[in-house]
Amino acid sequence: MRIGYVDGRGRDSKRTIWPFALAFFDRVRVVVAWCEIREGFRHFRTDRISKVQFVDKRYPRRRQVLLKDWRATEGIPE
To answer: 74 pairs with which residues across the strands?
Structure first.
């Protein structure tokens, strides 16, 4: 997906992300994704996503592999 995103300081950015999880924290929905710009895992609040464009590209890695790598990075047991 390509998204327009507004951070907590009100700055706009455009990113290509590969989402693999959706979570709910304190009344906020969060998309967990691999971010190509940051070359790492990032969490994007859905209320700060201003634009979404779907792309016809394949994920760089399988979603299950992304989830496993994210869990290891965050120290979350399987």
So the answer is: none
Say which amino acid occupies 65: V
**Burial degree of 15 (CB within 10 A; 0-12, 13-18, 19+):** middle
How many C-beta neighbours within 10 Å does residue 45 have?
A: 15
Which pTM was predicted? 0.84
Closest among 6, 14, 10 to 48, alpha carbons compared: 6
pLDDT profile of the chain (78 residues), mean per 10: 95 94 91 93 95 88 86 88
Could you give the maximum distance between any two Cα atoms of the chain, in Å? 35
